[in-house]
Each structure stands twice: as C-alpha cells, then as structure tokens.
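Case study 2.
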Amino acid sequence: MPTSIDRITPPDCSPFDPTNPPNYGYTPSLAAGIAFITLFGTLTTAHLALTIVSRRWWQLLFVLGGLGELLGWIARTWAARCVYSGMAFKIQISCLIFSPAFFAAGIYIVLGHFIKIFGARTSPLSAKQYLWIFCSVDSATLTLQAIGGGLASAAGDKPNGNIKLGTDIMIVGIVFQLAANVVFAGFFARVLYMTHQPGGKGILNVDDLQLPSSPSKTQPSTSTTPRLRILAAATALSTAALIARGIYRSVELIQGWRGYLITTER
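Prediction:
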C-alpha cells in the first residue's frame, strides 16, 4: 500500500496524462455520471414528493441520502471533464461515504415499524433500541472515516505526505460499519422469520394473516399487506446493497489509494 504522494498535479481540466495519473487513476465515465445524476435526481424528487404528501417526515432521511449521492455524482461528472480537480475528487469521496448512513437510518426506522405492526415478540430489541444503537454505531464509524479522510487528505496535500495513518483509520471505520450492517441484517432476518412462527402475523403468507375488519395502527389491513411484502423485499435488498457496498469499500481501502479497485472503473 502506498504511504505517500509525491507528484506534480496538472491544472484541473488538463487532458488525461497516463504518465501522471489523477487521483482516480483514470477518467471517470461521463455517460455513467449523467445516468446516475438522472437516477438519483428522479428518485430523490419522488421521495421528497411522497414525504410531503404522506407527512411522514422521517422519510426525509432517504431524501438526504439521495441528495448526498446526487452531489457526489455531480462531482464525479465534473471530474469527467476536469479529471485533475482535487475539489471534485474530495466532494465525490465525502458524499459517497456519508450518504449511505442516511439510507441506513431510514432502514432502521422501517424495521421499527415492522416490529410495531407484527408485535414485540418478533424482535429481541425494541424499535427505539434499534434506532439508538445502530445510529450511534453509524455516527461513530462515520466520525472515524471523517477523521481518517481528513488526515489522509491533509497528508496528501504535502510533499511526501504520509497518508497511511489516515487511511488505516478510515479502514477501521468502514469495517466497523460493515460489521454493524451485517448484525442488523441478522436482526432484520429474525424479525421476518418470527412473523411466520405460531402466533406471528406473517408478512409473506397473506392467508395465515388474521386481519381485523378495519385497519388499525398495530395490524395491517388487506390492502396494506401486499405493500408490506414489497416494503420487506425492498428493505432486504437495500440492506444487502449496504453490505455489498461495505465489502467493496473495505477491500478498496485496504488495497490503498493506488490499488486496483480504486484506480479501475468497471
């Protein structure tokens, strides 16, 4: 793993020079940047509209996450034209590191709603305990990543600056965050499993669900049960994506700032 950076950086919008590669190690794809700006812009706008209409303000967590991803991809698209821009690189790295934490917090709240709907017996922790425990862990891991990123960035701006300490702190933060995501996934799987046990109110098997004659705050109606199935599947997919992202980022940072993953766009 490289521990220092000692090179002359050309002007921001200079043509790519393979003998003096930028922070990326390549020129980011303009097409990919435009595609993801469109994707996150559209989905974030849709989430904001749904949040306002439903007045479920906790859903703003997903909006904040989407805005962070959008800003990160705007910076990456900027870098497609100005590949040596240190500012574009730092904005992209910062936004794409911190934004998933907002998605994770939203997912914790979703699991809390499942517990309230299907009963406390489905989970060893309460809805509030999930929120406090995992949000606290996320805050700690993000703090470590921020400290590490700041140290690495400061060292990288100096001639022969040693970025190893900052990088190692970032690795600790991202691995700790990955471990928390895996533990949360286990709790989430248990909640889904317990809804199918005797006395549980199943999400996936509608025929076994004893529905009240009118909707209540503690039990889903016939019309909302299919929505809960979709929400459960979307939450599981999102949790898996967070874990996959954590694995990739961990390996990427362990390889270093000049490693294969961080300098290869596939």
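The longest strand covers residues 4-5.
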